[in-house]
Amino acid sequence: MKFEDLLLEVGGFGRFQVLILFSLCLLRINLPMHFLLHNFLAATPSHRCAVPHQEAFANLTAEEVLLVSIPREPDGTFRSCEMFSQPQFHLLLNSSLQPENSSSTQQCQHGWVYDRSQFTSTISTQWDLVCERRGLNQATATFFFVGVTLGAVIFGYLSDRFGRKAMLLLSLLCSVAFGMLSAASVSYVMLAVTRTLTGVALSGISIIVLPLGMEWVDIEHRTFIGILISVFWSVGNMLLAMVAFLVRQWHWLLVAVTGPCLLSVVCLWWVPESARWLIANGKVKQAHRHLLRCARMNGRKDFTVSPEALRQMATDTSPGKSYSYISLFRTPVLRRISLCSGAVWFGVAFSYYGMSLKLTGFGLNMYLSQFVFGIIEIPAKMIMYVLVNRVGRRQSQAWSLILTGVCIGANILIPKPFTSLRSVVAIMGKGFSEAAFTTVYLYTSELYPTVLRQNGMGYTAFMARLGGSLAPLVFLMDEVWRSLPEVTYCGVAVLCGSAAFLLPETLNARLPEGIEDVE
Questions:
Q1: Among residues of the chain, what percentage have pLDDT more than 90?
Q2: The overall pTM is greater than 0.85
Q3: Over 60: is that where the pLDDT of 37 sits?
Q4: Residues whose CB falls within 8 Å of the CB of residue 61, separated by 6 or more in sequence, listed in order
Q5: 122: in domain
Q6: Is there a single domain that holds both residue 334 and residue 290?
């Protein structure tokens, strides 16, 4: 007897599963609130060099002081990172006579003055992460995703070893602790360390929620569950836009997005451990207790499977045998799955965060961009629900990622003045990108066997977060060539999307229990 046969007896999708999914979906909302927080936490408002008071300025207005102290850009705005080494009083007579000699300018010597009309404070304004320190600003996102990368490896292994629920609880508690410490940061170094540790903790939620939900439902509803849980990422996306709009001070913004994790701890109390995992690890008495509870809640009073019968459902491993990440590469089919799925996850995350962490440049207000990007994800997920059931997981995965790259490439060619067209193409690209992300979670959960599922999710999440870590740093390549970041995102998306064609199809297939089911 396979576990799917057992689910048919206790009810593969009833009241029991609905309550589990409701709890897990609430957990899922927490993720984008932190994963995309960099857009607002590290936003850089308009700024210029601070000009110290001098006696020579005594009879000048504030506008005249700026005119003689700070050079202008061709569009008439003040430069953000330079000031005149000596006041240029001749500009009072003709402001168009800007000095051509670069030796007359220097880097800001007395700090910066920021436009605080949109943000009360961000980490950029707190620690002057602008101009030559701009790289440190982008690095905060990379530090966070480095943490998520490490967390994927750690929680992937631990949840296969010690269970899904225990590690999910640990992940939530650590997320609350490190999130609050981040809000209390008194230096850039403290913020970088605590954001990294927050990323480690949140990674557990990221890779455990979907497999835990899918391991409790039957084949017929598996796609629906994958899409439903993914929809709540989009809900969190939109909530982030609203919270950031209301909370403009970075300390309190961190508190606001971390607080919901406490509610999630309460929601998790009711969620049972995965019966699949319990059986695969020889904990049949606990599995039997959860299955009886499932049968009662689903109205299946005739459930009579005994613990002895569950022992016969052992997979290819004897209870107590442990697996590691090396197991993902020992056999031929698993090796191909791991290499190709790792490439797909890297491409999905690299392109997704490349678009999501650059809300300016598409012609929309950044709060509106964040909200619209969240809304467009929902119809994209609905379309994917139909496609993955009609054309299959493999084709859906490959083409959604390839089309993401096509949209990014198209925006390179569209001139900047065509803001409406650029916005439409960007929103379409964001929809394809989210479709690719939605599919890859569902697809990967079906590719790996139960005894290695969390190791597989941990490894692929590691590859995804590696892509997420590199995505913010690619923005700095615009100093080499303005379009180089977009060309990079486009190329990686198309190449990694093509790797999905090498993966096996899993539509309407049973979830594999042991390695021999995959091979």
A1: 24
A2: no
A3: yes
A4: none
A5: no
A6: no
In a domain, 12, yes or no: yes
Range of the domain at 449: 325-518
Residue-level pLDDT at 240: 93
Distance CA 213, CA 336 (A): 26
pLDDT at 362 over 60: no
Q: What pLDDT was estimated at residue 406?
A: 93
* Domain-embedded: residue 124: no
Shared domain check, 97 and 195: no
- Whether 85 and 32 map to the same domain: the answer is no
Q: Please write the tens of the pLDDT for every residue from 147-164.
A: 988 898 888 888 888 888
| Residue 250: half-sphere exposure toward Cβ, Cα within 13 Å | 24
Residue 318 confidence class, pLDDT cut points 50, 70, 90: very low
pLDDT of residue 435: 87
Mean pLDDT of all residues in 83-92 = 83
Q: Are residues 24 and 89 in the same domain?
A: no
Query: 90 in helix, strand or coil?
Result: helix
Average pLDDT, integer, range 463-473:
85
The pLDDT value given to residue 322: 65
Residue 121 lies in a domain: no
CB atoms within 10 A of CB 73: 10
Alpha-carbon gap, residue 487 to 489, rounded angstroms: 6
Report the CATH number at residue 214: 1.20.1250.20
To which residue do tokens 């993966």 refer? 503
Helix (H, G, I), strand (E, B) or coil at 121: strand
Distance, in Å, from the CA atom of 2 to the CA atom of 513, rounded to the nearest integer, reads 8
How many other CB atoms are found less than 10 A from the CB of residue 306? Answer: 9
Q: Domain check: are 23 and 54 in the same one? A: no
What is the token pair recorded at 272? 């049972």
Distance (Å) of CA 486 to CA 38, 151, 348: 19, 28, 15
Domain count across the chain: 3
Same domain, 298 and 351: no
Per DSSP bridges, beta strands 82-84 and 105-107 are: antiparallel
The pLDDT value given to residue 364: 60
Query: What are the φ and ψ backbone dihedral angles of 2, each rounded to 5 degrees?
Result: -90, 165
Number of H helices, E strands in the chain: 21, 4
